[in-house]
Amino acid sequence: MNTVEIKNLTKNFHSTTAINNLSLGIEKGKITGLIGADGAGKTTLIRLVTGLLLPDSGEISTLGFNPSVQKSLLNPKIGYMPQKFGLYEDLTVIENLKLYADLKEVPYDFDKLLEFTNLKPFQERLAGTLSGGMKQKLGLACTLLGSPEFLVLDEPSVGVDPISRRDLMKMVRDLITPETTVLWSTAYLDEAHSFDTAVVLDKGQVIYNGNPHELAETPQEFENKVIELMGGYKKEKSLIAENYVPHKTDVECTVEADKLEKKYGNFYAVKNNTFCIRRGEIFGLLGPNGAGKSTSFKMMCGLAKPTSGTARLMGIDIIQNPEKARSNLGYMAQKFSLYGSLTVRQNLEFFAAAYGIKLSERKKRVEEIINVFGFSDIQEQKSEDLPLGFKQRLSMACALIHNPPILFLDEPTSGVDVITRRDFWNHITSLAKKGVTILVTTHFMDEAEYCDRISLFYKGEAIAVGTPAELKQKADAGNMEDTFIKLIKESEKE
Amino acid sequence: MKILQALIKKEFLQIIRDPSSIIIAFVLPLISILIYMYGINLDTVRVKIGIKNDDANPEISTLVKSFGHSKYVNSVVYDNENDLAKGIVRSKLKGAVIIPNDFSNKISKGQNADLIVITDGSEVNTANYVQNYSMQIVNQWLMTGRYARLAKPQIITPEIRVWYNQDLNSHYFILPGSLAITMTLIGILLTALVVAREWERGTMEAMLSTSVKKIHIVLGKYIPYFVLGMLSMGFNVFMCITVFKIPFRGNLFVLFAVSGLFLFTSLGIGLLISSKLKNQFLASQVSLGIGFLPALLLSGLMFPINSMPVFFQHLTRILPPRYFITFIESEFMAGTVWEIVIINSIFLTILGLILFAAVYNNTDMRLIK
Q1: Inter-chain CB proximity A82 and B202 less than 8 Å
Q2: What's the pTM value of the predicted model, to 2 decimals?
Q3: How is domain B47-163 classified at the CATH fold level?
Q4: Where are the beta strands (DSSP E) in chain B?
């Protein structure tokens, strides 16, 4: 028997079709992965199945109930974790658990959950002060309360490091019964590859539904197959890089960290961080959530003041000469940090002005960027209405508008689908070839392979620096993910 | 019941940990009371006026002295008409009195004597004061000086008795009235943010997938903020009566019962805004626009409702502050008048219930988008 049975389901938002005449069965007692590009309809489908949205037409049966009219009967049997985890940040860990236990009318039985999440020592901590990985575990713990028959997780692993992701996966597998059905939407294809079933969505329709191992043996092949299913990605010459005008420089280290340290009280957020990145190099900062990557980043671009040490961009000291040093920098922040209510064009015009491009050149530059990035059709749209992939492209365009010799990217591909990611990295590697120095953080271990050198960060310190091949050799592991986990576990032992 | 309890407890924990709700509930009202107490004064005391005497008769200088002794005006003598005019233009003087050179001459002959009083029409209230005070001083002077026999005797002398507020101290009605504004602000501003916050942070989405029912969500917001609002009201009344010595002639139980009804309407407006907009920034803007400003301008506190255009007079009928201000001013100054208490309570109850129904109907149990 299937837990979910969907027939000819359609859902429109204004003029766009989110779900298009979709039929699907989700098998009981299996873990089903839901994958697809941004805007393919994953979240909408999940919300329809749980009854949070009403369909325009078609039939849904979830656990034998019709979610459109029997939502109150369905709710107690479902555990649903929305994308933002649904935690109350100003309540403590234990208060969140108690609240959700009360709301689900189940007893306070937290021992096993606290043990599995390793949250036991942090029960009195406010949820808002937990690291990303711990928040996500707490969110999952709240969702698992009352042992729901059907677990629905909407991209639970976005922006989370590989160790936390593995923990999360283990938690789900250990805490569910053989009868529990799991629907898990994800942007990580290696994750989806490990599930019982993979459902690939595209433009609101199912384009693949079956055992992921039948589609491909390894996660890498699986990714290629999925990309093929989604219409394929053809690597083209990066117009963005073609358009870039290289800067000449005699400085050896275009980006340099010199004994950077940041201390909060007695706690080192970053400790003695020194590195030198040469022109045209892609340098990756990897590490678990809360390891000090973002703090390093902020110090490097002068947004946070180091306790000691300094950084130099194109040889200019960021502390003595912050404006001049920063003018060499294009920065793409972790969160979408453009003006949502401005149009694409207005955002570009604003950033052109903010980066000090002369009025006479501004119009020409904006026009050029619109052409190169392919924004002609969407230039008058509000940026908050754009699909995630385009938002990210726009962020990149704004970071590149003043043709900087250095580019800082803080988790640029978080939550972005696989095709958009490939396209994005095509531009990044092409830009590096033209001489742009790139500093990047990421949680996608496959992306780490694009880096020339990697610094693995843990508890505020660089525990390993080298090329991907060197690090893999050092850890004696086959891929970056295992390397990452192994090196961190080893450092933990010391 | 368990669900409702859990939601209420959660809300209280959030209130305690969020300094901004404590600020809105206790610091903001205190600031507003201080402003109403020391910043706003509708009584005009000692308006500054200029005097120019063109009459050389020494007897007239006693009139100029009378102006100087008055406790209502602060008079400055000018010799030059230009300086006097400049003083008014620069708003240094609120008005001027000019005594023409034939003033004493005409009075002595028993003719009508002219006195020029110049007032500043850009401040109508003050202009009236200048006119009235000047006439009073001149009449007083006329009756007591050597020209007394020439003045026409007054047949009727009004004996004025001011009820409820003998000293005509405007603080006595403004401060209780300001409580209505503070209560509006607390009720609307606090609650306008809380539902929107749950939507923005994604907690609503998680909550909607549990056993929570609509009535739980609605009551889970009403009850905690009602308690907080009443605590704040208690604090404000305490401040008004004990610290600022505003006389209270009514009954505390009646005061808090009707305040409770008023708070019920304010919470309704706030929650309605919040449930509809689902965006904290918008909700706070709208709550100022439709909550605070009407309470200040259209409630009858600052401007009498009778003198508003007819349309606005009717509009005030659907605004809760109107009923509360009528009640609270009378409760403080005249004591409990059951007629006023009952009529205003009925209107507040009706508005409160309508708003509650609207909040209930606008509480979404599903996502729209």
Answers
A1: yes
A2: 0.81
A3: abc type-2 transporter like fold (3.40.1710)
A4: 47-53, 73-77, 95-99, 116-119
